Amino acid sequence: MTKHSTSDLLAKLDSNKFYVLSGPVYVDGAKPGDALVVDVADIRVSDWGWTAVWPGYGLLEEFTEPFLWIWKLRKRYAEFKNGIRIPI
After folding, report:
1. Residue 44 burial (10 A CB sphere; 0-12, 13-18, 19+)
2. CA atoms of 69 and 49, how far apart (whole Å)
3. Spatial contact of 57 and 20, defined as CB atoms under 8 Å apart
4. Continuous H helices in the chain
5. Where would I find the beta strands (DSSP E) of the chain?
């Protein structure tokens, strides 16, 4: 996924590789199957993120087509449509 991705990419994602409520999360040096104990000392937020709706996933059953929203993230807010700002 990149900040230029479109909803078409959702059909190609392997949903077994991330947890839909919080991931993916990158841990430097971790390999599949590793057990991790993690103390979070710092969090760095990228300048973008994404939210998606997949038909058949979750509680939003009224959606019949995949939808992808690419967020522009700033220090204190995420930009949405029509100038709406969501506090981070």
Report:
1. exposed
2. 8
3. yes
4. none
5. 48-53, 67-73, 77-79, 85-87
Q: In what order do the strands lie in the sheet with 77-79?
A: 48-53, 67-73, 77-79, 85-87
pLDDT, tens only, 45-71: 788 988 888 877 767 778 888 889 999
| CA–CA gap between residue 1 and residue 25 (Å, rounded) | 13
Q: How far apart are CA 7 and CA 9, in angstroms?
A: 5
Which 3 state secondary structure label does DSSP give 84?
Answer: coil
Token pair in block for residue 81 = 């449509």
Q: Both tokens of residue 10?
A: 């959702």
Instruction: Enter the pTM of the model.
Output: 0.62
Most distant CA atoms of the chain, gap in Å: 43
Residue 21 tokens read as 């409520």
